[in-house]
Amino acid sequence: MSEAPRPKRRFRQRTVIPGFGLTLGYTLTCLGVIVLLPLATLVAKAAGLGPAGIWAVATDPRVASALRVSFGVSLLAALTASIFGGIVAWVLTRYDFPGRKLADAVVDLPFALPTAVAGIALASLYAPNGAVGSQLAKIGIEAAYTPVGIFIAMVFIGLPFAVRTVQPLIAEIDKEVEEASAILGASRIATLTRVVLPPLIPAVLTGFALAFARGVGEYGSIIFIAGNLPYVSEIAPLLIVIKLSEFDYEGASAIAVIMLAISFVTLLAINLIQAWSRRRFGYV
Amino acid sequence: MSDAVASLPDSPDGTIRPAQSVVTERPWIRWLLIAVALTFLALFLVLPLITVFAQALAKGWGAYLAAFTEPDAQSAIRLTLTVAAIAVPFNLVFGVAAAWAIAKFEFRGKNLLVTLIDLPFSVSPVVSGLIYVLVFGSRGLFGPVLLEHDIQIIFAVPGIVLATVFVTFPFVARQLIPLMQEQGTTEEEAALTLGASGWHAFRTVTLPNIRWGLLYAVLLCNARAMGEFGAVSVVSGHIRGLTNTLPLHVEILYNEYNFVASFAVASLLAGLALVTLVIKSLLEWRYADDIAAGTRRH
């Protein structure tokens, strides 16, 4: 090399703070034993089937239908959660009304409520003889034990993601920009659609992706309301449980790896959206 | 500043008073949006919560309380408390150690490490259980070795603890990392320069700085640990009185059409969720800056 000698790149920069080796070592050990080793075992198990074997599992009619239900319904639910979550976030941040703080706290309920509890509550509410289900039955909608029930559970579980990713950005909107837009003659609608909303789009997409990923993997809040009819309302995580109970470890692993792969693509998309947003707007 | 400008027209002595502020919507649109948001929250979030308590008390307090006195319920309560008592402190220690290494030092591969710690959040609960069956199950990676030494992990308490540790793994670390990064290292450096030992500096400088964030993270970690269903369901084996946690007990009772008992046990978990939410909100209102980095909450 003809370049001038550069200082040697170190693994870490010097500091007087102690404990680096100890804490990093402990962190890596825990991470390896608790997270990486088990996940690697899963990938190895599925890899044992080979690409053709995984493809055969994925295209098995019952598996394909479960994957379609999980991903399709989750897409619709995440879309619904994003739209209503956006309205909820806007209302909670911009308007003042009695009970606002209570409503804000309620949004986190799906994070705190165990999924099995949410599951039996939703199932009993939306069952044909339940409080809401009986009303829906009158207008000819069967909610419980159909994909509609899965949709309801996924909206429940995805809502906080949609609200909480957008809310901080709405709070940070500079009202002077809105004023400028209004003073320059824009109508309120024009200000909203052309000044306020565009910077929020990345956050909305992130919330959508998080809600979608959560819905795809969700199990506890869905199985009670879904009815779990093969080919109709059977979700992919349930099929993993069924395969496990039949000691079909390979089949279970294959479905799990397919789900993981799609989740990673979703996470990658989130990161790309955020990187793009940082470049475009200067923040996430 | 912008608030002051926006509120000027509303000042009582303001002589120039526009019909409405330019930075909000017309009143009827405001009220319509508030109505839509509150109806949505009531229908999707509040109603299920009320249902839990209504169903639990459907046959009166006697039937409600009876659900807790039966031995299976009591052993489920004991197991849930035991699992949380192991999983939460484990992740507390891990989270603090990980945050110390990541926030106080600059080293290569840091972003990758943070991503890997977050990994369990993007894994389906069922898959979180499955991976431990593949490692420790009788036909798994270490199955033969464990069988030889007569150690049972899957379909036993250790498996339940492991699955719970996995699903709650990122909670403390991801809360503390941005917080400790924002606080920097100057205070610790000052303490060390004045002769404090590393451990002493951590205890008297770092710990007080992060205590509210830590409490907040532990609270959420505990709620998830006690309420986890999918992952635990896969590794538990559902042995009544032995490997049933509270959420699994709820499922068994529900599938047996014992709705009152099922919802009664569920109401215990819902109560835990409510207490968690109340403390969480109080912490957020009072110590917002001490919980999360910057003004953003998540």
Automatic annotation (TrEMBL), chain A:
Q: Where in the cell is it found?
A: Cell membrane
- Coiled-coil residue spans: none
Pfam families under this entry?
A: BPD_transp_1 (PF00528)
Q: How does it sit in the membrane?
A: Multi-pass membrane protein
* Keyword Nucleus in record: no
Q: Where is the ABC transmembrane type-1 domain?
A: 67-270
Main location, first listed in the record? membrane
Keyword terms: Membrane, Sulfate transport, Transmembrane, Transmembrane helix, Transport
Is Transport there in the keyword field? yes
In terms of PANTHER family, this protein maps to: SULFATE TRANSPORT SYSTEM PERMEASE PROTEIN, SULFATE TRANSPORT SYSTEM PERMEASE PROTEIN CYST
The record's comment on protein family reads:
Belongs to the binding-protein-dependent transport system permease family. CysTW subfamily.
Q: What does this protein do?
A: Part of the ABC transporter complex CysAWTP (TC 3.A.1.6.1) involved in sulfate/thiosulfate import. Probably responsible for the translocation of the substrate across the membrane. Part of the ABC transporter complex (TC 3.A.1.6.1) involved in sulfate/thiosulfate import.
Protein name, per record: Sulfate transport system permease protein CysT
TrEMBL record, chain B:
What keywords are annotated for this sequence in UniProt? Answer: Membrane, Sulfate transport, Transmembrane, Transmembrane helix, Transport
Task: Give yes or no: UniProt keyword Membrane.
Answer: yes
Gene3D superfamilies xref list: MetI-like (1.10.3720.10)
Q: Which Pfam families does its entry note?
A: BPD_transp_1
Q: InterPro entries, alphabetically?
A: CysW_permease (IPR011866), MetI-like (IPR000515), MetI-like_sf (IPR035906), Sulph_transpt2 (IPR005667)
Quick one: signal sequence residues? none
Q: How does it sit in the membrane?
A: Multi-pass membrane protein
> What is this protein's function per UniProt?
Part of the ABC transporter complex CysAWTP (TC 3.A.1.6.1) involved in sulfate/thiosulfate import. Probably responsible for the translocation of the substrate across the membrane.
Share what the entry says about its subunit structure, partners included. Answer: The complex is composed of two ATP-binding proteins (CysA), two transmembrane proteins (CysT and CysW) and a solute-binding protein (CysP).
Q: What is this protein called?
A: Sulfate transport system permease protein CysW
